[in-house]
Design a protein that fits this description.
alpha+beta, 32% helix, 10 strands, 12 helices, globular, single chain, ten-stranded mixed β-sheet
Amino acid sequence: MMTKLARYVLLSLLFSGFVHAKAVEIIGSIKLPITSSNQAVGDQSTTKSIALLNIKLSKKGIQAIKNHVERAREYTPLRSSESTLPDQLQLGMNNVPVMDQGSHGTCVTFANTAAIDAVLNKGDYISQLCQLELGRHLENKAYTWSGWNGSWGPVILHQMSIFGVVSKANQQTFGCAGLKDYPMNGQDPTEEMDLSDFHQMSEPMPDNQVAWTEILEPNQAVFDQPDMNALVNDVKKSLNAGDRLTFGVLLVDFNQGMVGAIGKNRVNNDSWVLTPEIAADINEQTPFAGHEMIITGYDDNAFATDARGRKYTGLFTLRNSWGTGAGDNGEFYMSYAYFKALTLELQRIRHLKSSN
C-alpha cells in the first residue's frame, strides 16, 4: 500500500509537471514596502514589508497572457432572464479574521488555510506555521516547495489533505520545529518539522465537512486557452453553492498604488482593475509578481474607478493576508476583466454540507 509520503510525492510531481515545460515558474520572491492606514486609530499610517512571488513566464506563457488580455474586456453578465444567479453575493469569511503573512512569501499557505478555516467554522484555527515547517521538511527531502517562498494552491491543499493540520492552540503550546509564534519579519526560518513530530500534534482534515476541487491550473491557463468568461460564471456558481475559492493571480505594474491595485471601490487603492495602460505594459520585459487570495463574493453592478475616472464594472470581493491596514480593512476587490486576464490557478474549497 502506498504510504502517505509516497502518495504526497506522487501528487506533487503530477501537479508540478507544468514546471518542466518552463511556461510558468516560481523563481523566488519580490519584497515590497506598503504603506497602510490604521482605520482604528484615525490617520496614523505604517510602512511594512510584504513578499510577492517572483513569477517567470516563457515566451509562450507571455503570449498566452496577452491573448487573455485581448479577450478580457469588461465582463457583461447574463441578463436575469438567462441566468438564475443573483447579481451579487457575499459569503464573507465566517468569523475568520484577516490574516497577516508578514514579510514572507507565504500567501498560498495563508489563503488556503484561511479558506478551510471558514468551512470548519472554528475561527482562526489552523496553524500556518506548522504547515510551513512540515513543508520545509518536505522541501529538504527534495519533494516539493516549502511554502515559505512560494508554492501552488494544490500542493498546499494536498499536504493538508494527506498529513492533516495542526491547531494554533497546539502550535502555541508545543511549538513547531522549536517556534511557537509565526515570525512576522526577518529571514525565512530554516528549521523543519518532520513527519513524526507533525503527526503527534496533527489531526485529520475532516473529510465529511471539507474537500477541494481544482478548477484551473497553470498548464490550462497557458496552453489550453480556457474560456475565462465561463470561469467567471463557475466562480459565481461556486459562491452561490456556499463555497469560497482560492486563486493565484499575476500582478502587473506592482510598484503602482497598493501593489498594483490602483482602483477605488470603497477606499483608495483597494481594487485591481485592467486599465489600458496595464494591458499595454504586458510584454517580454514585464516583471510579473504572483499572489494568492480568497474569493468571498461578487457584485455584477459594483465598480471601481481609476485615477482618470474610468469605471470598471463587475467586481469580485477578495480576502487578502496583508493585515487589516491594507485595502478595505484587509479586503480587496478585483474586476472580472483583471481576473480573466491574469489568473493562473483556481481552487474551489467545498463545504460538503452545502455544496452540490
